[in-house]
Amino acid sequence: MKNLYKLLGSALLIAFFAAGCDTDTLQDMNLNPNAVNTIDVNYFLTAAELSASNNGLRDDRYTDWRTNIGMCAHAIQHLASTSTGTISVGDKYLENDVEPSNAPWDHFFAGDGRVTAEIIKQTGPGGYAEGHNINTRHAARILRVLCFHRLTDWYGSIPYFEANKGIEGIFQPVYDKQKAIYTDLLKELDEACAGLSTSNLDEGFKAADYYFEGDIAKWKKFGYSLMLRLAMRVSNVDKPLATTYVTKAVAGGVMSSNDDNVIATMALGPSEWTNQNGISRGFYPGDGGQWSSSFLSKTLVDKLMGTNKLSTADDDPRLMIFTGGIIQWTATSVVYNQTDPLKQRGLPNGLDGAMLDAMEGGPTTPYEKFSAVNPLMMQDDEPYMIMHAAESEFLLAEALKSGIGTGITGTVKSHYDNGVKLALQMYTIYDPSFAVSDARVTQYLTNYPFDDAKALEMIGEQMWLSKWMNWWDAWSDYRRTGFPVLTPTNYPGNATNGQIPTKLTIPAYEATGNPNYATGATQPDRLSGKVWWDGGPE
């Protein structure tokens, strides 16, 4: 049944965008505008949930392949590549104004942004569903926050208050400062979480919601956890705002169990372009094929292999979860050439093929030498994890340590330890073999005990490790906290003077087509620019 709703959502989304969904477009086509205005808004909710997992608008690997993997995973040194092409620009900080920067702008404004705007419009004053579908309305507000916080985190100032208002004749929306956007996003979460209630008339919400099947308690935890994330993201530049909303998030109740994790289920059909996991498709042989050009980085593998490289006793349990080993992967088989944890090897960042050959002393085929992503978590119908409880625990630990917010029970150490446990044990959704026992968690925490003097660094490192596959958020965490401490590359001709990228560039078509770009976009609008919460302009 879940897959049925996903298919309905995808079909609706295609029809929705094909029609343009703007009244003027429909009139130009001599169609009845009521044909769109009477669709059950719950269909839009399913479409919005699918879009939030980077699905539904374009082929399902579009944004993940280009931005999540190509830019962010390489920039924060989870992955490394010898490629100098567009699919791994984050490895060498190469300017690319097309794929990595265009993809999320294209997807989220026209996907989640547009669909959630329609739900909110039609369930609000004057809408055909005014006074109805209340939980659908508030869930859409939470999803819209997820969409726009991602966009502003990547680009800085963007159209927000006038975004997705083509039906009102606004085709060149003004740009809003990130500070104003964040202030409104936090307000939206506050109101949406308060508005969600089991007493609201459901009207199809449970059937349309394939994240939580209408579980209001889980939606509230999602919303308050997102509030905690956003509040801590601005904590370096607006501590009073952060304090207010950390306190609200804690009082509301954030995710505390892996059962609370926000997960979108995927499917093998109806085709390879719909309902499949875009990260998996980015790596799968014969499709994205990223497995043969992007490998676990030396930075990551060295961290996972622990202090003693001659023993597995102090290894991170995630080593042989993130990698399947040194493998030969085809569309029909996987040959595991080296699965010994002690023999795993990460590829250094910042190398091209000639540099790698020189380092290895002769022609080198990377997949014969370096640890690849684990095929067991890269099948096309793998679930897509959008947000997890471990993050909330790490943020609570950081908030306590930094004195931000009130009402947090426990200690910095207890929240840190809880976060590590949740992070180590959250991968069984991909394969049962990824189970990590409580005893192994205890061993890991004993090997690397919490040190209050290094609390912020340890929290930052564990946040980084926990964001495997959610690389764009790991990139935001890194930009905000500075942890883990990474050594940048300095590939010849890079665009950042050898510094890890700090912003995506706004697409050229937007820069030339919207006159408000010139006065409103965050400058410099290059990979070296900075957003407000990272020390850039408001």
Using brief descriptors, characterize the structure shown.
538 residues, mainly alpha, 3-stranded antiparallel beta sheet, two-stranded antiparallel sheet, 47% helix
Textual characterization of the structure:
The longest helix is centred in the N-terminal third of the chain and has 24 residues, at 99-122. Mean pLDDT is 90; it is low at 1-31. It contains 23 helices and seven strands. A hairpin with a 4-residue loop joins strand 4 (323-329) and strand 5 (334-338). It has helices at 2-18, 23-28, 34-37, 41-52, 62-75, 89-92, 99-122, 134-155, 178-195, 205-208, 216-233, 239-252, 278-283, 298-304, 319-322, 353-360, 389-402, 412-424, 438-447, 455-466, 471-481, 508-513, 517-520, and strands at 79-81, 262-264, 294-296, 323-329, 334-338, 372-373, 384-387. Helix 11 (216-233) packs antiparallel against helix 12, helix 17 (389-402) packs antiparallel against helix 18 (412-424) and helix 17 packs antiparallel against helix 20. A three-stranded antiparallel β-sheet has the order 5-4-6. Strands 1-3 form a two-stranded antiparallel ribbon. It is globular and about 70 Å long. The protein starts with a helix and ends in an 18-residue tail after the last helix. By secondary structure, the protein is mainly alpha-helical.
Strand order of the largest sheet: 5-4-6
- Sum up the overall morphology in one term: globular
What is the strand tally?
7
For the terminal residues, how far apart are their CA atoms?
45 Å
List the total number of helices. 23
Task: Encode the helix/strand succession as letters.
Answer: HHHHHEHHHHHHHEHEHHEEHEEHHHHHHH
Helix/strand/pairing class, anyone? mainly alpha
Major beta-sheet overview: 3 strands, antiparallel
% residues in beta strands:
5-15%
Mean pLDDT: 90
Low-confidence runs: 1-31
In helices, the fraction of residues equals 40-55%
C-alpha-based Rg, rounded: 23 Å
Oligomer: single chain
